[in-house]
Structure formats: C-alpha cells, structure tokens
Amino acid sequence: MSLQVTDLRVYYRTLAGDVQALDGVTFGVADGEIMGLAGESGCGKSTLGNSLIRFDPRMRYIEGHVELDGLDLPIRDTNAMNDFRFSAVSVIPQYAMSALNPTRKIGKMIGELLATKDIDYQKVRPEIERRLDMVGLARDVLTRYPIELSGGMKQRMVMVLSTLLNPSLLIADEITSALDVSTQKAVAQTLVSFRDHEFVNSMMVITHDMSILYQIADSITVMYAGKLAEKAPTSVIINSPRHPYSQMLIASLPEVGVRYADKHLTGIPGNPPSLLNPPGGCRFRARCPLAFEKCLEEPPFIELAPGHSVACWKAV
Amino acid sequence: MLTLDAVSKSYKVGTFGGKELPAVQNVSFEVAPGEVVSLIGESGSGKTTVGKMILRLIGISGGQINLDGNDISAIKGHDLKAYYRKVQGVFQDPFSSFNPMFKADHVLGMMRDEYFAGISAADWTSKVEASLQSVSLNPGQVLNKYPHQLSGGQLQRLLIARALLLDIEILVADEIISMLDASTRIDVVNLLGDLKARGLGILFITHDLSLGNYISERTVILRQGRIVEMGATPGVFGRPLHPYTRMLIDSVPQIHQKWGQIEAGLDATTVWAPAATEPCLYHAAQPGSATTAAPAGLTGSGLVEVEDGHFVGCVQPNADGTCGGRPA
C-alpha cells in the first residue's frame, strides 16, 4: 500500500465556526494505482488533496493519520513536510499555466528549485531533456521565459517539473477542467504514461468529471459533503454503483453517440448541506429518494466486496 | 428567425491596432423559433465572438445579421432597445454577472426601470413570479437574497428568468453550464429544452460536445473562425464528414467506452492538422475540380451541402481560402 489515510479530519476556521470540510476519511492507494477522486464543488476533494501536500493557514488539523510508503507523513507540520514535498509527494496545481515564475527563465527556475533539495541542475539536465522529448517539448524551452510558451506548453512543462524527482505520490487537482477536449485527452494520457514509465508510483486525480476518470483511473472514490460515499474499481462504480448519490450522478451524464430524441436525463434535486453545521446522520439524506428512518444514524463506510466500499444503509 | 449572413469579425491587435486578427470569417447559419442550435468550438474558435455580435456587444466587421428579415447589424438607440426586447443573452460565470453589493433580484428591478416604466406594482410582482416559476425557481427562496446566498444554478436560472421577463424570441446562452456542478447542470440544460418547447430559439454556445448532442436540433462546428461542419445533430455526431469533427468526437471522454490504446506523449496538443491523404469534400465539389490542378479559393459561405441539410467546409483552408490539405 503506497498511501494510507486513516480517519483524517480537517476543518476550516471561519468567524462563524468550523467548516467541516473533511470529516473522517479513510482510504488507501495501492502501488501503481491511479485513484480518481470525484465530487461536486465544496465536497472536500480539494481539501483532501491540499492537506496531503500543504496545510493552508486556514486549515485546522483535527485528527487522523497519513502514511506514505510506511513512513508517517507529518501533514500538520509545514516545515517537516519540506522533506517530503516535491521528492515524495508532488502536486500539479489546478492553474498550472500560472505556476511558473514569470521573472525567471524556465531552466534557471528549475535550477533554483532543485538547489533547495541540494540537487545539481547540470546533473539532472539530461533527464529533464529526455522527459521534455517525451512530452513533445523542444529542449530550448529551458532557455525561455514562461511568457514565450503557449498555455499547453506551460501545462506540459509543469507536468515534467512536478514529476522530475520521481515522487511516490502525485496529486493532480482539476488539471483537465479548463482545457479543450483534444488537449484534455492528451493531458490525461500523459498522466497515465507517467505512471507507466514509473515516474510516479501512485496518483490521486481530483476532478468533477467522471468521464475523464473512467478513461484513466484504476479506482474511483466519490465524495459527498466532506465524507467518502463510495470507493470501487472504475468499472464497478460506472456500471454498478451502490450509493444513490453515485447512481444519480452517473445517470445524469449525457454522452456522445447516444440519440436523445425523447430520452430525458434528470439531475439531483436540492443542494449539498452547509458544512458549517452539517446535519447528523447520512449527509445525502435530504436529496436521497431512498432515505428512510435509519438514515438519521450515520452510515458506516463498509466494504461490500474486495475494494468496493459504500457508506449507505440501503447498500449494506 | 435569426439569420447570420457571411458574418465576419476582425480584431485590431498589435501596436496602435496595426494588425488585424480575423476572429470570425464568413459565418452563416440561422436559428429558427423552437429549436436549439449548438455552436461548438475549442477556445479561440470565435464562438463567443459570434454570440457577442448577435447581442451587439461588439461591432460587426462584415456581413449581416437579420432578425425576421430586418438587418440589425448597424441599428442603434431606440431600434437597438427594441431589438433587445427580442434577443437576450446569458453568460458563463453566474457569480460575476451579479453585482455582489446588490440583492440578486436587483437585476430584475433594473429590467423594470428600463423596459416596464409604467407597470403597476401588482402586475410587476405577478410577472416576476411567473417568470421565476417558468425556470423552476421558488420566488420566496431567491427574492431579497444576495448573490452569495444563492447557488450557481439558482443564479443562472435567475438570469434566464430576467431574460424571460421580455417576450424574447432568441436566447444566446454562452457556456451557461460550464461553471455548474454535474448534479445540477443537467437541470439547467433541461430548462433550455422546456423553453424551446415554448417556441424560443436558442443559440447554445459550448465546448462540451456531449451536452450539445443531448440538447440541440442542429449543430454548428467552428474552427479558427470558420464553420467546418453544420447540420442536424444526429447527422453531425453520427456521420461526421470533416476530419476535425471526427477528431473532436474521438477526444470526448465517454463513460462506457474507453479511448483507444493510450499512447505516450502529448502530440495531440500541437496544432491539429488533417492527414495529407484526407480528401477535401468542399474543393472536390467545386465545378471543374477534376481538371484544374490548383485548388480554387473559398466562395460564398465556404460550405458545400453534401447531404440534405448537412454542410461541410474545406479540410484545411489557407489564409487566402485555398485548400492546404489537398496536394496541388
């Protein structure tokens, strides 16, 4: 098991009280696994990604335990995390296009970055060039400023940079969301090829787009209102989801290649609950067509079959 | 009926506007009452520019836009205001469409000042409630609230309700669902379907092919400011004729069918180009094409009707309109 997260709770401090953005999640990511993390905005998926790489000053650690390759990850200690960041855990940020320092030539910026890890840029340079070739970038981008690169080129540059030290875990947060379909496909396939070339051991791909996850992920975890709703291998969750939220979410996706003359897709009525004072019991209860008395109690996240866990009383 | 006739737009760029950037070239299509036309293109294809020209938010460099036979491309003042009674738009980001200082229904009040100056309070209230109900909003839940108290879906519906206060004929919906969550976006799309059933013509501008396929009767595919393919949605998605359309459809992530073999590298992000062997249906259909070696330029709309109502453009037009994809 590459990554093991146990009962992680992270709240946001606000004037009105604590926002319970991440409320007790437990899961594991296996070696070589691409784990997809799906959910709507405000469900805590980015909070989960961010808490594994860098605690925001507004974030408050409540409890929980994170283990990466058998080592404790000191996620609550920003300074102690410096030893892990970039080399063991790395991130491709959502706005990769603005992640490069505009006042440095790209090669120089990489050099400064490597110097913080006591690595000699000239020694790593052949490897950088090899990876630039792989993603189809000319080697002379290293002598250029970010402004001279197109958006797609900057995205590729950041992907090469984030994975340069062969991190064990790569977190990709909504990196395909702002892209056109053709670029989206290329970026998604590059993520897979990075895994196949063993540049990264395992990967967490955070997105709201289930269809991208179906293409590249080995397993999909669906989050709802700060909790895990369902986790299963990709084909299981797409073809036979057990949680009503995953079922309704997948059923509401339109597809190309289907004719919708009289067919009508429906969304999920209502809105997710506020996480400032979330209701007790199952948090999906208010929008769930199957809700019954038992849903006032909180459903446990139970493993139904190997690798398939669900938090729903109806699925147990 | 809204008709675009060889509409073009070029932006002035560079120092002192010395260079021209052709954003839209020779675009012709129409939106009839009771139909949804989706205008699909990647970023930079000019799809938003087309929407802005229809809404007269920017000038038109060439061609004509007609509403029910009247040219609206140069109207101003009183005539323009009358035009806005019939044509309205809704845009991508619901959060920045509202002034956060004012309550969200302030936009409805502005509509009253501008278009319904003499209306009585009771008439106005019933009008507002009717239009809110037609977009499935509960008046009690949205009136008197600030934008931050409402969800993106509610704000987007409120903007549609604002447009519906007028007896509009055409709604320009520019990427209206791309900021919404998956669980609510399909409801906003279904709302467009309901409006269509009531006789509204809708121009649905999007980069999301699956939503376009779901909602629209006709599809227009735009690439680098030109229409490359246009026709009934089942035709364009079922039998795409232009290689660019095929590439787009192949790139869409589907949920029950995986992409083909995943190859390493990001080559697809470089500028798309058709294979050299790709035949050009447009130039092949031109008179005398079999005898002349050099391909002719584009004439008229630059489209050729291949099947009934299914149009396709040149495979790879050069700047001067000659065919770049076909060996000379």
Identify the notable features of this structure and list them briefly.
A: 316 residues, Rossmann fold, eight-stranded mixed beta sheet, four-stranded antiparallel beta sheet, 24% strand, globular, B: alpha/beta
Give a structural overview.
The complex is a heterodimer of chains A (316) and B (328). Chain A has 316 residues and is of the alpha/beta class. Chain A contains eight helices and twelve strands. In chain A, the strands form two sheets. Chain A has an eight-stranded mixed β-sheet, with helices on both faces. Chain A has a four-stranded antiparallel β-sheet with strand order 2-1-4-5, with helices on one face. The longest helix of chain A has 16 residues. In chain B, strand 1 and strand 2 form a beta hairpin. In chain B, the strands form two sheets. Chain B has an eight-stranded mixed β-sheet with strand order 6-7-8-3-9-10-12-11, with helices on both faces. Chain B is built from twelve helices and twelve strands. By secondary structure, chain B is of the alpha/beta class.
Q: How far is the first residue's CA from the last residue's CA of chain B?
A: 41 Å
Shape type of chain B: globular
Structural class of chain B: alpha/beta
- Percent helix range of chain A: 25-40%
Largest sheet entry of chain B: 8 strands, mixed
Instruction: Kindly estimate the percentage of residues of chain A that lie in beta strands according to DSSP.
Output: 15-25%
Question: Looking at the chains present, what oligomeric state does this protein adopt?
Answer: heterodimer
State the separation between the terminal residues of chain A, measured CA to CA.
26 Å
- Annotated CATH homologous superfamily of the domain at 25-242 in chain B: P-loop containing nucleotide triphosphate hydrolases
Q: Tell me what the CATH architecture of the largest domain in chain A is.
A: 3-Layer(aba) Sandwich
Low-confidence stretches of chain B: none
Largest interface: A-B, 52 and 45 residues
Arrangement of strands in the largest sheet of chain B = 6-7-8-3-9-10-12-11
Q: Which residues of chain A form runs of ≥5 with pLDDT under 50?
A: none
| Rg over C-alpha atoms of chain A, rounded to the nearest angstrom | 21 Å
**The top level CATH class name of the largest domain in chain A:** Alpha Beta
E-strand count of chain B: 12
**Largest sheet, spatial ordering of strands of chain A:** 6-7-8-3-9-10-12-11
